Automatic annotation (TrEMBL):
It comes from the Eukaryota. Pfam families: DUF4476. It comes from Pyrodinium bahamense. InterPro entries: DUF4476. This is DUF4476 domain-containing protein. Residues 70-130 form the DUF4476 domain. The lineage of its organism: Eukaryota, Sar, Alveolata, Dinophyceae, Gonyaulacales.
């Protein structure tokens, strides 16, 4: 299935407006509704992660970019639907970001794009505590 998350209408979350779910809310005909769309479909069997050379190129571009970590995460999120990662690539990505909030965003962006989730121990060590993963 698919889901909305981080729903905002006129600068407030729907929870701040008293709604438990976007399904309870009626979309008005004016103003702006912002949200993140999440699909919980796992990669199909046989899906391939990015090649090592392409992944290294992405990491190098991120390192050389003057953008903030939050801007880099936003760019990664905008292209994440185009490729898959393996567990080692997820480990490298999580190691790139310094704060637990940044790691959490990167993790949420790519978790359902990991082709070898059975190797999750490779990237779970990048979290400082069990609470970060929960």
């Amino acid at each position: 299935g698919s889901h909305f998350r981080n729903e905002f209408y006129q600068g407030l979350t729907l929870k701040q407006r008293g709604y438990v779910s976007v399904a309870e809310w009626t979309l008005p005909e004016f103003a702006e509704f912002k949200f993140d769309y999440v699909s919980n479909q796992r990669p199909l069997q046989g899906s391939k992660a990015l090649s090592p050379s392409l992944w290294e190129g992405i990491l190098l571009e991120m390192h050389e970019s003057p953008c903030t970590p939050e801007e880099k995460i936003a760019v990664l999120r905008s292209i994440s639907h185009n490729f898959f990662l393996n567990s080692m690539q997820m480990r490298q990505l999580l190691g790139y970001f310094k704060t637990s909030e940044q790691r959490a965003e990167a993790f949420l962006t790519f978790y359902l794009r990991i082709v070898d989730l059975y190797n999750s121990k490779l990237f779970l060590v990048r979290f400082e505590s069990a609470e970060e993963v929960a």
